[in-house]
Design goal:
With 524 residues, the protein is mainly α. Helices cover 85% and strands 0% of the residues. The chain is built from 26 helices and no strands. It has helices at 2-9, 13-43, 45-60, 68-74, 78-102, 106-114, 119-130, 132-152, 161-170, 174-207, 212-236, 238-241, 248-267, 269-293, 296-311, 313-329, 332-362, 364-378, 382-393, 397-421, 425-433, 438-449, 451-467, 469-472, 479-489, 494-523. The longest helix has 34 residues, at 174-207. The radius of gyration is 25 Å and the shape is globular. The termini are far apart.
């Protein structure tokens, strides 16, 4: 209630409801086939093996990839946005539902079978009830993915908060962008908390000895009747359909954000500009010049060589195909500029990921303190990360790189921490007994034994960074991100925008195949 009242006080009631409508519509459609497919994958090893590669592919592709082809069929608008969101949001529900079904103890299923239960009865009476919490977690992840996708779908004229943020970023209106971004954050928190709590609500009510259980159904029925009456009033009277007030809270928030931005630019510009220039001139520009000024065939050969050395011959062949198609798109120079920014951002992600991941993996207290923050950061839509860094660094490609790093580093930290924690305690104790100090244990024992997790963290960091390329095009990232944004906003550049979108897909496939193959070889 507080969250929804806040949308109205911000003056963003209609935009918030548009976003909520698109999100819930996409989630409902996605769950209609995602949960049955997840149950099927949980029951059938063969189907699980078949569908897993498709789910991996769908989850590693940048979010924009789902928008470009659908606009050719369904045109630009809310319909394409909902369909793209359905496709993007379904994999988490399928994968987590399958995991929940497979996690039910075999002894429980065998006990049901021994009592004469049919497969349908075992599913309805045993498997689904016992996997309920896990399935609800899958629904939660689907809602979070849908909300993130709906905001990005503003690029294809989807209504809602994403469109407000996009227009504000294009005009460098930090205050308006912050106000709308804050509404997206509040909506993510509301949807996350409601779905998370719903997994235990009914069970807690059944286990309680109070009077609430007796009156629960009548109260729910009365609430449903009240909702129907309110819907009728809102469709009959204008006053019932509009949020009261003029949204002055949102104006105050925007003005405060503008004031903070002005203060930061006046007082912190020396520090932020020095940091930006150091990274840009010392790392990004030389690497970008190396890629863009070298002959395409030389860079392509180097990429294929890296694919073969790191991932094997199959990865090398995939890289060669991707390089050939990149040349064919006609945006090779922009692709190399994007490649340089992506690699630099990924290096920064892994530096932070290893530093904090090792700290979390070695300290239970640090893990308890940092993990909730990392979990919250992962459910935030990508648009939200652009606003504060736009205020600090202005509209430059460095702004997009920093936003991509902050967006991608939580997953890298968590994967690294899990890998370090998975190193057997006996191995660490043996190294300690042999006289190794803390630094030697980390560098000689834990990190080498967690190299599979580090490779996976690199894979996910690359994909997360690459998914920010298009969003970064709104704040001066240039290259492929700008081409895509310009293509969707200017009809005469639509062809180039699609070519840039295809180039982003090819970079994503190339990165994903190389790092995944490296992870498999590391585990082997």
């Amino acid at each position: 209630m507080a969250g929804f009242a806040f949308f109205g006080l911000q003056g963003l009631w209609q935009e918030s409801m548009d976003t909520l409508a698109l999100t819930l519509s996409a989630v409902l459609v996605a769950l209609l086939f995602a949960i049955p497919l997840g149950v099927w994958a949980g029951l059938s090893d063969r189907f699980n093996r078949i569908i897993t590669p498709f789910l991996d592919f769908m989850q590693t592709m940048p979010t924009f990839v789902y928008l470009a082809p659908l606009t050719l069929i369904f045109l630009i608008g809310p319909a394409s946005a909902v369909i793209a969101t359905v496709i993007y949001a379904a994999p988490p529900a399928i994968r987590i539902t399958a995991h929940g079904i497979r996690s039910v103890p075999e002894t429980t299923v065998e006990a049901a079978d021994s009592m004469g239960s049919t497969r349908w009865q075992s599913l309805v009476k045993v498997l689904l009830p016992m996997a309920k919490r896990t399935v609800v977690m899958g629904v939660n992840q689907t809602i979070m993915a849908a909300l993130a996708m709906v905001t990005i779908a503003a690029l294809i004229d989807a209504p809602g908060l994403g469109k407000t943020v996009m227009q504000a970023l294009q005009s460098l209106d930090v205050g308006t962008a912050f106000n709308a971004g804050l509404a997206i954050v509040v909506m993510a928190i509301v949807l996350d908390r409601v779905t998370t709590a719903s997994s235990t609500r009914a069970e807690q009510a059944r286990n309680s000895s109070g009077r609430f259980l007796k009156w629960r159904r009548p109260l729910l029925g009365s609430g449903a009747v009240g909702v129907v009456v309110l819907i009728y009033l809102s469709h009959t009277y204008l006053w019932a359909a509009q949020f009261p007030g003029d949204g002055t809270t949102g104006t105050h928030i925007a003005n405060a954000a503008d004031s903070v931005t002005t203060w930061a630019q006046d007082n912190l510009s020396g520090i932020t500009n020095a940091f930006r220039d150091a990274i840009t001139n010392g790392l990004l520009n030389p690497f970008q010049s190396l890629l863009t000024d070298s002959p395409w065939w030389l860079v392509g050969a180097a990429l294929v060589g890296i694919g073969v050395v790191v991932g094997g011959w199959r990865s090398g062949i995939t890289t060669a195909v991707c390089v050939g198609l990149l040349v064919g798109t006609g945006v090779w120079s922009d692709a190399m500029t994007t490649l340089a920014s992506t690699v630099v951002a990924t290096v920064l992600v892994m530096v932070l990921g290893i530093a904090f991941g090792v700290w979390m993996g070695r300290s239970t207290m640090v893990d308890r303190l940092l993990r909730p923050t990392l979990d919250a950061a992962q459910v935030m839509p990508p648009f939200v990360y652009l606003v504060p860094f736009l205020a600090l660094f202005g509209a430059t490609r460095f702004t997009a790189i920093v936003a991509a790093v902050v967006y991608a580093v939580p997953v890298a930290i968590k994967i690294t921490a899990d890998g370090v924690r998975a190193v057997p305690e006996t191995t660490v104790e043996a190294a300690t007994a042999a006289g190794c100090n803390t630094w030697q244990i980390i560098t000689k024992v834990q990190l080498p034994m967690a190299r599979g997790a580090l490779t996976l963290a690199t894979n996910q960091g690359l994909i997360y960074v690459l998914s920010m390329v298009v969003v970064g095009g709104l704040v001066g990232a240039g290259a492929l991100g700008y081409d895509v944004v310009a293509g969707f906003s200017q009809g005469e550049l639509y062809g180039k925008g699609l070519a840039a979108g295809l180039a982003i897909v090819l970079l994503g496939v190339m990165f994903d195949r190389i790092t995944q193959a490296a992870a498999r070889r590391t585990r082997a």
